[in-house]
């Protein structure tokens, strides 16, 4: 999210509307059957022989363990789905990878299912989760909800690592882009007081103009600049309507080559596109979770996963 050039405005607002509820319900320990014996009244402890008591406890444990199964959710299937997909952001155990992503460990099944349904239908808006929930069946939702609910709550401040196969970007800095790419577009970002300049490889421009999918080897690349501000802190706008650039902040890129999508789970995969954010000294920006880029661009499969395909086709 931090790395998300676009997410700063869009996702940050959405996240602030939905506080980290997983945290509130955190720290609920998983039922510990051993402790149940101590919770029985003393009278019960003396009336039963030790062996009988143990049997009773086992029976109770069995009932507790079987309770979710009675609701037809498959916790193991939920666990597998989480491990390959949700873990990229919420962690394999429901302890999320960043402050902007809610923990789901120990969250209630009914709550998780209701949120997923609202995100799928669009009643709750978040570009990343809308794209993911849209691909989940009712059964998937029940299964992942049962799994997350079965996990112990997150310890304060705990975070999970990114999923390496999803976070890893193969995009390298396109040296010499100023000479070899076409500058095809500019956008003002009032909320962040930024202006972005968009560049693309010549073959990508040609394909867009021909109405063809963008081919392997395509690179779309943006310079993100802080706008020059006037005395009152408002961006200075040039005669062309665009903010005057003050300082380069970072670069953002998407590129594709054969096989680059191979290690990415189908529900996140953008064909063979990979994404990256580069610092001003042309290094991969640390802390970027490619899963977020992939999720947000995912619904654009019929336009080469590209928001600005129209502008690309109109490039001069
Ligand atoms: C690319 C990152 C990403 C992935 C992958 C992802 N999520 Fe999310 N999820 C988010 C973000 C960001 C939010 C916060 C949305 C908001 O602010 O409204 C969220 C919110 C949620 C919520 C609402 C939580 C609440 O407290 O209200 C649920 C439920 C959820 N995700 C379930 C899932 C499940 C299940 C999967 C896997 C099938 C999944 N997510 C995969 C990023 C992700
Ligand atoms: C919340 C949704 C969202 C997320 C997350 C997101 N993008 Fe985008 N992306 C957009 C939108 C909307 C545009 C259109 C113009 C813009 O905002 O720059 C875009 C445009 C782009 C472009 C210009 C080409 C195009 O598609 O039009 C690049 C390159 C890009 N994003 C890279 C990234 C990278 C890298 C990440 C992850 C670090 C990322 N994006 C995450 C929504 C998103």
Keywords:
binds heme C; 5 strands; Cytochrome Bc1 Complex, Chain D, domain 2; disordered N terminus; 316 residues; globular; alpha+beta; five-stranded antiparallel beta sheet; 3 domains; 13% strand; Chalcone isomerase; 14 helices
Explain what the structure shows.
- It is a single chain.
- The model is unreliable at 1-49 (pLDDT under 50).
- The protein is an alpha+beta fold and 316 residues long.
- It has 3 domains: 7-66, no CATH class; 75-161, Cytochrome Bc1 Complex, Chain D, domain 2 (Orthogonal Bundle), CATH 1.10.760; 177-313, Chalcone isomerase (3-Layer(bba) Sandwich), CATH 3.50.70.20.
- The chain has 14 helices and 5 strands.
- The protein is globular.
- It has helices at 7-17, 21-24, 33-39, 42-47, 50-70, 75-90, 109-121, 127-133, 138-149, 164-167, 177-180, 202-209, 290-297, 309-313; strands spanning 182-189, 194-200, 219-227, 245-256, 273-278.
- Helices cover 40% and strands 13% of the residues.
- A 5-stranded antiparallel β-sheet has the order 1-2-3-4-5.
Heteromolecules bound: heme C
Share in β-strands: 5-15%
Helices and strands, in order, run as HHHHHHHHHHHEEHEEEHH
CATH-defined superfamily of the largest domain: Cytochrome P460
In whole angstroms, the N-to-C terminal distance is 33 Å
Total number of domains: 3
CATH architecture of the largest domain: 3-Layer(bba) Sandwich
CATH topology of the largest domain: Chalcone isomerase
Query: What is the global morphology?
Result: globular
Question: How are the strands of the largest sheet arranged?
Answer: 1-2-3-4-5
Helical amount among residues, as a percent range? 25-40%
Low-confidence runs:
1-49
Main pleated-sheet profile: 5 strands, antiparallel
Radius of gyration, rounded? 25 Å
Output the number of helix runs.
Answer: 14
Structural class category: alpha+beta
- Using the coordinates above, name the CATH class of the largest domain: Alpha Beta
What is the count of β-strands? 5
Mean of residue pLDDT values: 85
């Amino acid at each position: 999210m931090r790395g998300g050039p676009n997410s700063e405005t869009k996702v940050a607002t959405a996240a602030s509307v939905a506080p980290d509820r997983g945290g509130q319900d955190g720290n609920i320990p998983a039922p510990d059957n051993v402790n149940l014996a101590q919770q029985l009244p003393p009278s019960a402890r003396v009336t039963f022989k030790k062996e009988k008591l143990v049997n009773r406890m086992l029976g109770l444990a069995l009932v507790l363990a079987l309770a979710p199964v009675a609701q037809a959710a498959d916790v193991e299937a939920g666990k597998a789905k989480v491990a390959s997909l949700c873990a990229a952001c919420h962690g394999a155990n429901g302890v999320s990878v960043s402050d902007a992503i809610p923990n789901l460990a120990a969250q209630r099944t009914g709550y998780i299912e209701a949120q997923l349904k609202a995100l799928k239908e669009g009643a709750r808006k978040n570009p990343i989760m809308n794209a993911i929930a849209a691909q989940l069946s009712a059964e998937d939702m029940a299964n992942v909800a049962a799994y997350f609910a079965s996990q112990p709550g997150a310890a304060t401040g705990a975070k999970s690592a990114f999923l390496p196969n999803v976070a890893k970007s193969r995009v390298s800095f396109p040296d010499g882009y100023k000479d070899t790419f076409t500058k095809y577009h500019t956008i003002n970002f009032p909320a962040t007081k930024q202006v972005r300049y968009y560049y693309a490889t010549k073959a990508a421009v040609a394909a867009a103009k021909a109405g063809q999918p963008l081919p392997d080897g395509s690179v779309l690349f943006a310079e993100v600049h802080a706008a020059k501000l006037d005395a009152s802190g408002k961006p200075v706008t040039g005669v062309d309507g665009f903010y005057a650039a003050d300082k380069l902040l970072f670069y953002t890129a998407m590129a594709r080559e054969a096989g680059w999508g191979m290690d990415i789970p189908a529900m996140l995969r953008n064909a063979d596109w990979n994404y990256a954010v580069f610092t001003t000294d042309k290094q991969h920006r640390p802390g970027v979770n490619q899963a977020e880029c992939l999720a947000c661009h995912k619904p654009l499969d019929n336009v080469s996963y590209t928001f600005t395909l129209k502008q690309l086709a109109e490039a001069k």
